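Please predict the structure of the following assembly.
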Amino acid sequence: MALDHDTKRDFKIIGTRPLRPDGIDKVTGRAQYGADQSAAGMLVAKMLRSPHAHAKILSIDTKAAEALSGVKAIITAADFGDMRKGEAMNVRDHIMARDRALYDGHGVAAVAAINEATAKAALALIKVEYEILPHVTEIADAMRPDAPVVNAGFVQENAPKGYSENVVSAHEFGHGDLAAGFAKADKIISRTLKTAATHQGYIEPHACLASMGPDGRGELWCCTQGQFYIRTLCAEILGIEESQLRVTASEIGGGFGGKTTAFIEPVALVLSRKAGHPVKMVMDREEVFKASGPTVSSEIDVKIGMTKDGRITAGQAELRYQGGAFPNMTNWLGAQCAFAAYDLEAVNAIGINILTNRPKQAAYRAPGAPMAIYAIEAVVDELCEELDLDPLDVRLKNAARKGTKSSYGPTFDEIGLVATLEAAKIHPHYAAPLGPNQARGLSCGFWFNFGGNTSVSLGINFDGTVGITEGNPDIGGSRASISMMAAEELGIPYDKVRTIVADTNSIGHNDVTDGSRVTFAVGLATIKAARAAIKEMCKRAAKMWGIDEDAVIWEDGYAKPAGQNAGEFEPLSLAKIARKSANTGGPIAGHHEVNADGAGVSFGVHLVDVEVDPETGFTKVLRYTVFQDAGKAIHPDYVEGQMQGGAVQGIGWALNEEYIYGADGKLQNAGFLDYRIPVASDLPKIDTVILEIPNPGHPYGVRGVGETSIVPPLAAISNAVSRAIGVRMDQLPMSPPRVLKAIKGAKG
Amino acid sequence: MKKLHINTSINGNSAEFLCDPDATLLSVLRDQLNLTGAKEGCGSGDCGACSVTVNGRLVASCLVLAAEVEGAEITTIEGMAEGEVLHPLQKKFLEHAALQCGVCTPGILVAAKALLEKNPDPSETEVRFWLAGNLCRCTGYDKIINAVMDAAAEMRGA
């Protein structure tokens, strides 16, 4: 049987648009999200949070709160384990301040009580004595040699010298001779560009229900992108073994990277252990803004040289990212992505991580890439304008392709950037006429895509239906895609397959739902699990026919004799083999465990038309088209959904969204009224064009599609606004006052 | 704090409950009556995930006191389908893949139904402005708007 054939192309189910299996529950209100579960005897937990950006905690007096009727447990950092290093320590210390509050909103104590009102009353009775310390929330301020030290002890050997201890790491990528490259250029532009910190803005706040017995065994229900990682973090923080904690992922109300780590779960577990009752904990929206994980803010120096005919001769960037009071790797990712779209002889990017008195950043859709590529694509566009070149032609001239040595090291295999750019060039959008105060912008985007550790189990039920158990929370329709891939491989209808997301104790390990990995890696494991089941079904058919198992093939859902020499037998359907399986050797199942590599990189191109009101500086997005390589779109509706959703998050980032800190270091806009994400009336239709350049690393050619779409909007809109007003914008968000200032500045 | 005794009707069924004077309608629906379809996304009336109707009027139930609904008729997402039969909006949301995570979906469906009761033939712009009080972070709204327009057409018999 040639089961490991090349990329499959003749699909029956892949590429169709069946209804998602969790759809009915989600349109009727039945779906259970993080805050929707309750337990008998349940307590409610609330956190006391620091009102200061940076303060020494001199004392915490909980006596009066403990004496309040209905209060069952109060904890502080002293109730957590004493681990001294690693990411779990950083997560623990980000959740609950140990001796210093490091940001506005940092947890200081937590209460579990019989109801929310009692818990809130108890918080008011906890007396915390602070000594306020100097704080720093902005990148340039934090780097100064005399800056207040935010969190000592994190400086790595590669950190650049001459700065404060807040400058903790630097990662450098590139190749070639920069000086020689710039010498060949006809035009060189150097600029510094800035982006604000933004929030993932998932509509569902973090929520969990924890139950921990005195025997050290626990149950945790929570909204997360990764129940296995939550289990690892909580087990380490609580000092228990992973097998003793079962974590079940609820339906998840959005994540975008922001639910890849823990913010409340260890607190609820420790409170439950102390109180001896289940504990429910739900963040309010202000807490989500202040004390979960927004993305980094950035300052990026870019220098790019170009010839008169549009060839980039050299590119250089220094990316300075702050991601709060704890170190992160987003600078490492950003430096790799910055120039990834281009085939360059001389390129260098260095990413620097700076600590500030802000919450610890978490992943946000292609973490590190949007701001890096914004900076590069803004300068490339400015060069195109200065040299009077077509911006799409210049991208095509410099585009990375198969065989290009990428700016971050690896040589690209089959990639879709050129095809994507060509699709944009012939699209009617690119030639559509523009009116006064209107302009068009474009940008490339890139994301690596991840594979990672994955386990899938596939059972052939006696009645001929199929159950799939996987371990990655479904954040945008992945259960549908996984069922489709199984149905395709097995040769049975989609509605015969049901896929569920299991808890940590019902399936082998699975990495977090991140890196756009699920449809790729879980899909790959599902196809391999289906092939294992097919092998067993062929064996059973051989047994029923009394022939050699190598003489049986699987075709369109049937076991068939391999050829005339195998004998004449009526093909056996999956259902028939399943019904007989108890008598032919017992239940039939397939499973596959893999640390998947081969996740093909993903490129996209966005075109946007804007109109800028010269009186107010307000930018209206008039038309938007997303072009993206999906490798193979399993369920095109959900591929389009990722492309549209990412584009709109990027529109928010470009025009409105921003963490605003006051001089006092406090967050000034911790709510959806003042942190304004795009609403339906802000937007035009978001048109999509799916390209399919198969990924050689997946049996059906799948590439992840979830993240690339947030990368291009920042520069595409910045380039459009810059062309509309005749002034190059160099800072996000391009809020009306900022655009108006640029217009007035240009007029002198 | 003395609790208040409230009599009301929810999805056509009479309902009574005791509540604190400062309890919101949303907290009573979710925590006392186990109607968890309405979600709390912000608690400040900005996101629309808790949308329900009170006497036919679309409200953010996080901004309504439970004590205010004495004698009122409330409808929630749980009352939208009739038995096994989905409302056309629910059906069209599935067909158009108008949801990803789905947490905003109950609020958007309740809001869209309230729109179509007032205006059976809305323009796309009217739909976009009516739903501007309902935040969705996954979809970019595109497929939601298509689903509402298509449901409106079907309900008009167009």
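The helical segments of chain B are 25-32, 88-95, 105-118, 124-130, 142-156. The domain at 4-79 of chain B is CATH 3.10.20.30 (Ubiquitin-like (UB roll)).
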